[in-house]
Amino acid sequence: MSNLVEIRDLHFAYNSRPILKGLRMDFPRGKVIAVMGGSGCGKTTVLRLIGGQIRPQRGSVTVDGENVHQLDTEGLYRLRRKMGMLFQFGALFTDLSVFENVAFPLREHTDLPEELIRDLVLMKLNAVGLRNAHKLKPAEISGGMARRVAVARAIALDPQLIMYDEPFAGLDPISMGVTANLIRSLNEALGSTSILVSHDVHECFEIADYVYFMSAGAIVAEGTPADLLKSEDPYVKQFVHAAPDGPVPFHYPGRALADDLGLGGGA
Ligand SMILES: Nc1ncnc2c1ncn2[C@@H]1O[C@H](COP(=O)(O)OP(=O)(O)OP(=O)(O)O)[C@@H](O)[C@H]1O
């Protein structure tokens, strides 16, 4: 199958509040796919459904041919070994060294001997340029470096699927560029598939093969970055050019200002 992840008719609600409203998405093997959209549109929820942390009310998520929400606990655990996740803000364990942070998933999921863990951790840290920082604690490195350590941890088990939740949030422009290049080059080096949740148009368009735009729990546009840059779709134009108003309104919906000021022509 050419798609590593397939999402069909996916519906999800928190209690009775609908969050995702019938998504269809394909994530082809070997590609970097960006899922973009404003705050709260449901991007992180998509990642949590792919990881099996939450269950949809309707529809399916298939990863490597397996329906995530039909697996038993053991099956889900096995499938999760194929996934690496970079959490929002790339939170590291603050009391563990850089080395131990990256070793953590290896210790959790494997019985590898210590010498092998050491070599694997140093190789992953080398891939992100931080082999020589392995003894430091998270408090002793910069935010950009911490994000790269979190990337090294996400790829510790050589995952088939790497999910990045807002990997650029809070980084300076140089660290953003470094992280973006790293995401792309690691995807090539590992032969994996990457899902990139972000609202940074510049970085995503630079490295993604395909982009989904979400708004209010639905896909409103999709295509290659080149297609989307040419798009006349008002939503895409607003997002790509960061216009403050457009299909996503500046004003919270409700009464018109004229009505509130008692200027509404009628009654
Ligand atoms: N555990 C929860 N219980 C109830 N509502 C939640 C929960 N987690 C998220 N939500 C709501 O679900 C909606 C979608 O959240 P989600 O985190 O998927 O958005 P997002 O697109 O990733 O946004 P952001 O970029 O701000 O992280 C939001 O309105 C959020 O308030």
TrEMBL record:
Which CDD domains does this entry report, sorted A to Z?
ABC_Org_Solvent_Resistant
Q: List the molecular function annotations (GO) for this entry.
A: ATP binding; ATP hydrolysis activity
Task: Keyword check for Cytoplasm, yes or no.
Answer: no
Q: Which Pfam families match?
A: ABC_tran
Ranges for domain ABC transporter come to 5-241
Q: Which UniProt keywords apply?
A: ATP-binding, Cell membrane, Membrane, Nucleotide-binding, Transport
Q: What is this protein called?
A: ABC transporter ATP-binding protein
**Natural source organism:** Zemynaea arenosa
The organism's taxonomy opens as: Bacteria, Pseudomonadati, Pseudomonadota, Betaproteobacteria, Burkholderiales
